[in-house]
Amino acid sequence: MQINEPDIQLDAVDFALLDALQQDASRSNLELASRVHVSPPTALRRVKRLRDLGLVERQVAILDADRMAAVTGHGVQAIVEITLDRQGHEEQEAFEARVIGDPAVQQCYRVSPGPDFILVVHAPDMPGYLSLAQRLLTSDANVRNVKAFFSVKRAKFDPRIPVRPRDTREGRA
């Protein structure tokens, strides 16, 4: 099974490993092997190969936001739409470089059509959000429009990418 790059060949075991890693990357190699029905040496070798291919970008811990709020406070999470005045390649690259360097920016997407960027940001409170907005958005003469949507409840959060082989008969994923 080929995926986008001609050198990457994945089979059902690889897909099962990728799916299992997305569900819980802290599993031991023995647990992982058992879950995907292969021997532990096979699981270890395959996971190393998937990492070497760059399919596993990194492993992180996902914190429980509600439990962390008891320690750090809930803070303010916002989804922010940004439209640039000039949308040339250099202007987009410059804006993107500035915002991704800020720790308050959790996610940054270039989008089309509509606004040029969507950011997911987290600030400790509204004064913290105001500081972030001034630092990243209002101080940039190339930002034409900003629209912020403040999260009052997160109903779902799942960072997994659906992992399944491409349907090669119809050329569809």
UniProtKB/TrEMBL annotation:
The keyword Transcription regulation applies. It comes from the Bacteria. PROSITE patterns: HTH_ASNC_2 (PS50956). PANTHER family: LEUCINE-RESPONSIVE REGULATORY PROTEIN (PTHR30154), TRANSCRIPTIONAL REGULATOR AZLB (PTHR30154:SF34). InterPro entries: ArsR-like_HTH, AsnC-type_HTH_dom, Dimeric_a/b-barrel, Tscrpt_reg_AsnC-like, Tscrpt_reg_AsnC/Lrp_C, WH-like_DNA-bd_sf, WH_DNA-bd_sf. Residues 10-75 form the HTH asnC-type domain. GO terms for cellular component: cytosol. Signal peptide: none annotated. CDD domains: HTH_ARSR. This is Lrp/AsnC family transcriptional regulator. GO terms for biological process: regulation of DNA-templated transcription; response to amino acid. GO terms for molecular function: sequence-specific DNA binding. Pfam families: AsnC_trans_reg, HTH_AsnC-type. The keyword Transcription applies. Gene3D superfamilies: 3.30.70.920, Winged helix-like DNA-binding domain superfamily/Winged helix DNA-binding domain. Keywords: DNA-binding, Transcription, Transcription regulation.
